[in-house]
Amino acid sequence: MRGWLCALVLLATGAQADEVIPRAPFVDAPGVQEVAFLARSVGGAERYVLEGSDLDTAHRPWSTFKIPNLLIALEIGVADGPNALRTWDSSRHPAGRWWPDAWLQDHTLATAFRASAVWYFRDVATEVGSDRYRDWLARWDYGNADPGEGRDDFWLGGPLEISVAGQVAFLESLLSGTAGVAPEHLEILAEISAEPDHAGLHAKTGAGPLVPGNLAGPFGGWYVGWQVREGAAPLAFALYMEAESFAALRDLRRDLAVTLLEAIAE
């Protein structure tokens, strides 16, 4: 048994056990107020939980919604592939003071995903429409499956919300093939979401202010995805954290998730 595992907590069904990862020494960073982490093997019995994690409270998905958004766009033909190009219309989507330079240009589906260019996916949302989002999100049991009415930013300011457990369940359904997504579209997602510095890792970040519009206040942040493993089923995972500022979690969410995945592999 792995030396860093401190306990086995039986699930209510008795059919599976959580391998509980102790918070120390992994969670020890200034400004961090909350961290939750869950990793589960696709179709298997492995389930790893960071000690003290709240897996069931729903949060706004922020840019992690680009995973289902990309797939919906491909499935219904709003985008015909990773090279689907959209022109940035500055009159429709004027640049905010906080926009990174990478957003201030035209994007393809692939580059918009990697740069997390919100304007591109707001254009996608306008074309998809609330009814089709509601249908797909309900089909996937994605969080509360609520895109609101006529909203093109419902994953940022609400009403859409999803929990850590919900993120992992959604990814498991994709990887197991039960979500009903075309294999070629999953291949596009896998290619676009690959982390270049970590072989076998596919993920998306997301973050936003806990009080909408207050960019100087506390932030919530995500790092969700999956890890392909040699000789074992992939691990679907989600990390959610809250911190006193965006700067406090910007790099930490990814670094901490990678550290926890490496600990699991030991």
From TrEMBL:
Name of the protein in question: Class D beta-lactamase
Alphabetized InterPro entries for the sequence: Beta-lactam/transpept-like, PCN-bd_Tpept
Source organism of this protein record: Pontivivens ytuae
Penicillin-binding protein transpeptidase domain: residues covered: 60-182
Keywords, comma-separated and alphabetical: Signal
Coiled-coil annotated residue ranges, if any: none
MF terms (GO), sorted A to Z: penicillin binding
TM segment ranges: none
Signal peptide region: 1-17
